[in-house]
Design a protein that fits this description.
17 strands; single chain
Length: about 350
């Protein structure tokens, strides 16, 4: 049984720490791998990334596997949340061995942040090590294959896409080969997810769906968005983050290719994309449970295509699951509220 989420890749678990109210609108999300780690790679294409330990994932470098990936709010400040995850992993002896003593390890925890500073009203309200620890503890406490909360939770709590509320979305698929591919996205982009003249979601249109809102609904939505934009002022920095995962047994170089092609999924759902005020970053994880067909040299292509498609679908789900925010930090209507659940 699958739940259409990143956790359909057996062994992966997801935990959120959500910080909202009293000036807060931010949080952290942790993807926890099985003990022993997973093959990992990353591809950064935004012009303003906030990242940690991404160089360690270069296939030319030493580290083979990672135990966790951190997605967080708080811009560069929020990267401190990875320290809490590192401490939790060290306590359990999970990390890169650095001596004969099995307790002496260095957990390599890649992390990337979205810009959400001040969206709750307090610029100094941002995730720290305790937030990261809360998120990894939530992941560890979850059941294998558990559904993943979507919308304004974890790193998606303060996410904004263009002029509407963003959030977290996830999706998965089982290929004909039996290999599972899945994605989890923090949708927080400078670009828009909607056609300007209809309000339809780009991500749904490229999936072959045409749920065009009525002209009346679109005009009303445009008026609300104009009012919100006037209150919010000029758009700040943003960034869309994603984790694409598979249970296939692929190399680090192949994982690097998966992270790169998954960016196509962002480009199909957000326009424009990879701007200077975005820090768009995609991580790839592979648990290695299922071999690729040795006799089929292009077997990876199915995984690459699925990864990009799932990122698009996860962005749509993030936007559909988001809830409106009207507070001291700004006003961001949710898509579902604006368009009445048009499908």
């Amino acid at each position: 049984m699958t739940v259409d989420a990143l956790t359909d890749v057996a062994g992966l678990r997801v935990g959120h720490a959500t910080c909202s109210g009293d000036g807060w609108l931010t949080g952290t999300t942790v993807v926890l791998t099985p003990p022993g780690g997973a093959i990992a790679a990353v591809d950064v294409r935004g012009g303003g990334p906030g990242t940690k330990e991404t160089d360690a994932l270069d296939p030319r470098n030493l580290v083979q596997k990672v135990e966790a990936v951190v997605l967080t709010g708080g811009s560069a400040y929020g990267l401190d949340s990875a320290s809490g995850v590192m401490a939790w992993l060290e306590e359990r002896g999970r990390g890169v061995p650095v001596s004969r003593d099995p307790a002496q390890v260095v957990p390599v925890v890649p992390a990337a942040s979205v810009f959400d500073l001040g969206r709750g009203g307090d610029f100094r309200a941002r995730p720290d090590a305790s937030t990261g620890r809360a998120a990894v503890e939530a992941a560890d406490a979850s059941e294998p294959g558990a559904p993943v909360c979507e919308g304004c939770v974890g790193a998606g709590t303060g996410a904004v896409v263009g002029t509407i509320k963003g959030g977290i979305g996830t999706a998965s698929v089982v290929l004909d080969s039996g290999i599972t591919v899945a994605a989890l996205v923090v949708a927080n982009a400078a670009g828009s997810v909607m056609q300007p003249d209809t309000g339809a979601l780009y991500g749904e249109l490229v999936q072959g769906r045409t749920p065009y809102p009525s002209v009346e609904a679109h005009e009303a939505a445009r008026r609300r968005l104009t009012e919100a934009t006037e209150k919010n002022g000029p758009p700040p920095l943003h960034t869309t983050l994603a984790v694409v995962a598979t249970d296939a047994d692929i190399t680090r170089a192949q994982a690097q290719k998966l992270a790169g092609t998954a960016h196509d999924g962002i480009a199909r759902a957000v326009r424009p994309v990879h701007l200077l005020n975005d820090g768009d970053t995609v991580f790839a994880l592979a648990t290695g449970a299922r071999p690729l067909a040795d006799e089929h040299p292009l077997a990876l292509n199915d995984i690459l295509a699925a990864g990009a498609d799932l990122v698009t679908r996860a962005i749509v789900r993030a936007v559909r699951a988001a809830e409106s925010v009207d507070g001291a930090g700004g006003v961001w209507p949710a898509y579902e509220e604006l368009y009445g659940g048009t499908r």
